Structure formats: C-alpha cells, structure tokens
Recover the amino acids of this structure.
C-alpha cells in the first residue's frame, strides 16, 4: 500500500455541491473526486498514490505518452463535469500536494482565485478550428497563372518552380487572412478570445488546419455564437471547413499570461 | 442538483465522446493555471511530450484505438523524414510554443 497525495484539478466556488463530481473518476480511477474547501473557494481533488505520482515515479511516467494521454483525459473529464453546473477555474496538469493542509494553504494564499472565478462565471469555452483542402485551394489559385509554353523547356521549368514558390506564398497569405477574418467575427460574440498555434497534421494529408482558436462564451450568447459560426461558414463554404468543440472548462481563459 | 435549463443548453459531458485527444492535451498540458505543488514536475518535458503526442495524434485519427505499444515505439522518429515536412512542423510548433528560444537560443 503506497502512501497517498492529493492531486488538484482546479477550483470552484465553495457553494458547489460535491455531487457535481460524483460520476467522474480521478486520475487514479479507483479514487473519488472530492472538494477541499476554505473560505470562498474549494479545490477539486482526488487521492493519488506516491508510487505513481510521487517525485521519482511521475518523472518516469511522464515519459510514457500512453500514461500521460490517459491522465490528461481524466484531468479534463473531472473539470468538464463542472461545466454548465458551476464555475470552474482549471489548473494545468500536475498540481500534487502531500496533504490536505497544503491544499488549504494554497487556497488561502491565492487571494486571486475568487475574482477569477467571478470573471468566468456563467461562461464556458468553445473551440473553433478551421481547415482548408490545400490541394483544392492551390488548384484554384494556380488557375490564374500559366507557364508560357513557347519558351525553352529549361526556362519553362524555372518558371514553374518560381510560380510554385509564389503560389505557396499566396496560399499562405490567403489562409492567414481568412483565418484572421473568421476569428475576428467570432470574437465579437465572445467575452474573450484567443488564437493558439495550429495543430500539426499528417504531412501527406490535403487537409490543413489554418485556425485553432478558443472563445469564452457567455451562456446567454451561446446560440448567437453558433449562428455567427454558421454565417462565417456559409461565407467561406467553398474553401474553409470549421469544427466547433466544447463546451470546455475555460482552460484558455484562466488569466495566466502566455509564456 | 443542476439547474435544468443550463444543463439543457450546455449538455455537460456531451462533448466527452468526441473530445479529441490533441485538443485535450493542448488544454490540459499547455493551458490552465500553473500551480507548483509539493511534487516537482518538469513542465518543459511535458511540453516536448505534448508536441510529440500532438504529432502522433494528428497523424492518425484513430490514436485512441491504438495501444500504448504503438506510442512507445516512438514512430515520430521511426516513421522517417517525409521531405522534412514533419521536422518543419515540429520546428514551427516549437517556435510557436516558445521552446526553441528557451533551449538553444534562436538560431534561424
């Protein structure tokens, strides 16, 4: 039997009923998720074994992508249980305390938690990704160009190379501009918005992500946000495909400055 | 327990089925308040691992069905260099994550 520690997922207002988390498991699936409270806020926590999450073992486990993927999902599942039921302020993966007293110390020290929770109240995070079919887009842009077939084979080859480069630039400009426009429109309906780095795709795939954004959307504005996204999608129907995800816990809007 | 109308609007847990691993990793490992607990965790390692995981996940939609063995074989290194495209993407991603500056200084 290994010694235990407490893994903390984030904080919620103290008024949150513990039953919100009764259907989810912790990062150690055998452990229930509990609330540790002090003052205005409560920490969402569950017990973990030190032989899995202790200083040495966790370093080892972090090198195992399968382990990390599973635990990251569990972390998000716990926070997601709060979405729509209470306000939740998500922590990044890996806040582990030796005992409850240390968790209470954290809650007492972080006097900023209550105001951040107020800021996030009544809203959730929605994710929007946009994709283009690179080949189709390149074909359309290339249709405006042509190689002068009268010149020698060597020069035609050089022209083609040159045009391919220009086409790449044009494509880049085009998608960046469109992605930015889409984001700007969606951001007007959101309380807050942020653009993240696009996720890499399979290099052999024609589908390329051109926007990876997150929006903090008030509950009362969710329908408006969805219809704005539909409008944006209609406007770009030919070339850009959008994907909506969420509602997520507001991971992107905790107020933590980007590194 | 929960307010019915809100539950209805937000359908809590409904997105769990479809939440893609890449999105979960991005949020859980890159975002959220950083709390230095009692156990020291090397966040830089996590970031590198995230980048690797993202590459893997995005390269194969069915990452979830794939067992841990598949991950452990480190296909990122094993699948070979496809005209450097994967490497380029990794570099771009690292730059976006501000990793290259921290580790080695900007050399491009």
């Amino acid at each position: 039997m290994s010694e235990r520690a407490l893994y903390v997922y984030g904080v919620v207002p103290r008024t949150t009923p513990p039953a919100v988390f009764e259907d989810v498991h912790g990062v150690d699936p055998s452990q229930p998720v509990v609330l540790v409270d002090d003052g205005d806020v409560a920490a969402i926590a569950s017990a973990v074994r030190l032989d899995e999450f202790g200083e040495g073992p966790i370093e080892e486990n972090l090198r195992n992508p399968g382990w990390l993927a599973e635990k990251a999902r569990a972390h998000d599942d716990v926070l997601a249980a709060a979405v729509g039921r209470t306000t939740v302020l998500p922590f990044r993966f890996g806040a582990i305390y030796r005992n409850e007293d240390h968790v209470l110390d954290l809650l007492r020290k972080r006097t900023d938690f209550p105001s951040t929770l107020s800021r996030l109240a009544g809203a959730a995070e929605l994710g929007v990704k946009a994709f283009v079919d690179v080949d189709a887009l390149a074909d359309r842009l290339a249709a405006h160009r042509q190689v002068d077939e009268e010149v020698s084979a060597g020069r035609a080859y050089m022209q083609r190379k040159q045009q391919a480069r220009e086409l790449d630039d044009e494509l880049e400009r085009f998608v960046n501009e469109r992605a930015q426009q889409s984001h700007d429109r969606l951001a007007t309906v959101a309380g807050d918005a942020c653009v993240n780095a696009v996720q890499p795709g399979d290099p052999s795939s024609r589908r390329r992500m051109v926007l990876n954004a997150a929006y903090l959307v008030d509950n009362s504005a969710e329908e408006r946000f969805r219809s704005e996204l539909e409008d944006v999608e209609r406007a770009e129907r030919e070339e850009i495909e959008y994907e909506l995800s969420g509602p997520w816990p507001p991971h992107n809007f905790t107020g933590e400055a980007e590194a | 327990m929960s307010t019915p109308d809100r539950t209805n609007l937000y359908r809590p847990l409904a997105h769990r089925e479809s939440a893609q691993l890449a999105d979960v990793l991005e949020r859980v490992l890159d975002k959220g308040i950083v709390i230095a607990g009692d156990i020291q965790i090397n966040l830089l390692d996590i970031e590198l691992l995230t980048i690797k995981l993202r590459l893997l996940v995005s390269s194969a939609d069915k990452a979830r069905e794939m067992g841990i063995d598949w991950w452990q074989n480190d296909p990122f290194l094993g699948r070979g260099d496809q005209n450097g495209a994967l490497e380029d993407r990794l570099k771009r991603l690292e730059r976006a994550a501000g990793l290259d500056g921290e580790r080695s200084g900007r050399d491009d």
Observations:
- Residues 47 and 94 of chain A are 13 Å apart (CA to CA).
